[in-house]
Amino acid sequence: MRGAKSAKWVAIAGVVALTATACGGGDSDSKGSGKVDPKGIVSYANGEPQNALQPSNTMEAYGSVVIDALFTGLVYYDKQGNITYENAESVKPDKANKVWTVKLKPGWKFHNGEAVTAKSYVDAWNWAADPANGQQNSSWYRDIVGYDDVHPAKGKAKKKAMSGLKVVDENTFTITLNSGIPYYAYKLVYKPFYPMPSAALKDPKKYGEAPVGNGPYKFKSWDHKKSIKVDAWSGYKGEDKPKNGGIDFKAYTTPQAAYNDLRSDNVDTMPLIPDSELANFKQDFGDRAIEQDFSAINTVNPAFYSKTFKDMDVKVIQGLSMAIDRDTIAKTTFAGTRESASGWVAKGVKGYKAGACGEYCKFDPKKAKQFVKDGGGVPGNKISIQYNADQPHKGWVTAVCNSITKSTGVKCVGDPKTDFQADTEVRDKKQVKAMYRSGWVLDYPFNGNFLADLYGTGVDGNKGGFSNKKFDELTKKADAAKTIDESAALYQKAEESLRDSFPGIPLWYNKTLSAHSKNVKNVVFDQAGDPVLSDIEVFEK
Amino acid sequence: MGRYVARRLLQMIPVFIGTTLLIFIMVNVLPGDPVRALWGDKPPDPTQVAQIRHDRGLDLPLWQQYLHYMGGLLQGDFGNTIAGNRPVLDEITQAFPVSMRLASMAWTFELIVGITLGVLAGIRRGRFVDNTVTLFTLLVISVPIFVVGLLCQLFFGNELGWITPTVQDSENMGQLLVPALVLGMVGLAYVARLTRTSIAENRQADYMRTAVAKGLPRQRIITRHLLRNSLIPVVTYLGTDVGALMGGAVITEGIFNVTGVGNLLFQALARREGAVIVGIVTVLVLVYLVASLIVDLLYAVLDPRIRYA
Predict the structure, then answer these.
(1) Which ranges does the record mark as transmembrane (chain B) (predicted)?
(2) pLDDT at residue A497 greater than cutoff 90
């Protein structure tokens, strides 16, 4: 549930945010006299992971944060959205971006002493791609040649290994893709691309209860629904060596409970300030409050198959977008904790460019009214915005609706579904009446992730039935580009073209809102909203 | 007596089957597919969805699923969760002791303080004690439980620092004390009011006048004659409240981060974990049934005129 759940979760981003990060996160508060204890344990307010702790089977936030502490993948990215090498020495494509050669840094080991080799990667991925092993993230290997044999659309695996994965020598392997993807290295950041030791594949069940990774922390214990404990691992070869002695992931049932514990220093940090505390968390924590950019975006999207939006002139959608007073709603409903969006790509990812949406994302009631009128208006002069009522969306949906009605005279109502499950079901079945609220957190920090994966014709993430030839062509071109930078630039063009087709109305960029206790310093969250655990320092008691 | 108990126990079987079937159907009617929900708002993988549905038997017709479920239940197998594929029995055996501890503490609190207040108020009807108790119980009943809970948490936890704001270890009785008091608060008010009314009424009864005329000690009149006869409605309430305290503690458990049954049930509902919901409800139904049987048997103890054949 990385998406919607974590959309209201947390994290940071772009170059601009760097400064904010530095002061928001940390030292400004360090109590001068406080000495740091390198063996100190950080407690983090988490919840019970949904699944057993296997990297290829973990996508929701509670499990993800633990997996990321235990594992280090091939690559990661820096705050500018550029690839950094972790377990890999290099990840290089051929000219067509089709065959990628991965070279590993030698000498890395798993926590159980087994060497991390090319085989550890290839075997783990092949195992996870097999539907019989029930790994939720297996579709992440779909770009690799031979994926369809291992993971056919129906039925059992025809082969046990993807032909596109080849072990060259102990520290080298190649990945052959179905078609060239210039930014493929970005995808390798994600959890299903972590390596697993051979013991994991022999007894996956046991492994899921006590995972063995190659990351900065070593698994210690999992007391279900109470806490997961990990220790700093002395054999770690990576750059991000822990500055603390370990992490205690405490399971909380509600963010509110965690918040109250945080206030009393019973827990050191948490991923998300509950909405009810947005207005006063800065007061409660002073300079221990954390506010950072986060690569996620909120939109309301028309359902292009619905009676309301079928055959609608794009001018009307542009008009509706101009009718929304984003700044005021961000200030009032969100207590200033969101930032108005000016395009379809979230801040802090490679290829982000402000202002892609142009004038259509600026509040202009007069023009809005004119545009809606020129476009022939809305059938029945009424629209609705679907949302899930189990999370606090009602407030802003009402505000957006009021803004639309006030500016254009189009009646607008909220269309609540009882909870997130009911909401997604309606979206999956394509039964949305007019518009629905949506949110997207980056999978990998590249603008294509916010464009092709959401608005391409027929792609899985495209829930509104949007289809535009020009956009599809532009994204295809971007995917065929030679280099990452070229691809990102072409994707920017594709984003700009959305101005004329408007697949969704951008609303706000999210922010990470968190705080930390008096026991720790240096608490920073990354672009995806995850805490940088290894950097946290604990004061001596 | 023995035959009565046997008959009651036999009656439990249809009640048991009926409730589980109803819950089973209701969970299935809810919108939202638990397997699809594993992917959140990310696009699900159809092959994997089909695989999981098949593994868990979710692709069978509902009646077959129910038969499978009941068949497993008879062998003590509650099935597995959809997320994580863990045995439901593990989840239940982890949550129930916690809730049982919390509920029994709350219940004891209700029982002792509630009846004491009720007796005091009933005996001195219209006097200062009575007015105070009436006012206090009115206050408790009218203030929602989460307000009381949050206030206790903020005051004792964050301001005074007497307790940790949330329960750090759900097995620790000391830490469960405050949540238990909060949980038992509303029940306490009802017990006090029921007792008060009942006592006040029975005080006018003939047997009371006789007892007083006989010159029995006051203590004995109140405990043996007055209280015993006045407790029937209170016992009924306390009996059904056992089940309510176990399953209905969602709010209190949420505020104080207690990982009990209420919490488990709430999360299972949000995730549409049919096996977990039916499993918990099954156990709760048993708790209710046993509690109401005990209540009925207690009637006979309290009032010997009530006899069971």
Answers:
(1) 12-30, 105-123, 135-156, 176-194, 234-256, 276-302
(2) yes
